[in-house]
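Protein record
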Amino acid sequence: SSRTNRPGMTDQADGNSGKDEDSVLEAGKALSGRGTTSKGKGKGRGQKGESEERLKELVVNLFGEDRHLGTFPTRLHSDMRHLVEMLRRGKHARLASDRLAALESALASPSSSVKSLSELRQQMEAWREGGRRAFDADRYYDGDRAVGYTEHNRGPQETLARRALQLCSLPTDSVDQKLEAKENLLAVDLGCG
């Protein structure tokens, strides 16, 4: 099953169990100091005596594509999403050192597509560059989008153009039809954004 946690980010349940998942669980338990017994309610989760931590595949939409980061304990997904988002923005993660160590250990497991925080950072840059190369400005800025921008910015642009003319000591009132053609001015406002 799949559920959306935040725009562009989903968790997908992974039915595989094996040595990869065991190493992820052991690494996460060792660094976080948490046991494996869940304390949730309902739908078969968190029942007493349950000794297996739940694993899910973490899939994050980055730069227009779903990126499969690996299978991790569900308790690490929030921190992993935070880490990925901060890397996407080019910032440092705001996590305590023990939480970063738990993420580093989970990334080092065989069930992860990248093996360290530095490798994840490098992979993020590669995905960013690939997204830039794949971007088609002509398709994105189609006629409908251009009309929308024009309508949205018409008032503010006109106000800015009038103010620029005033600062140049040029008349901003309507063109007087009685003036000779050589005295009429044409102001061209070029959008460069």
Observations:
- The first helix runs from residue 19 to 32.
- The longest strand covers residues 65-73.
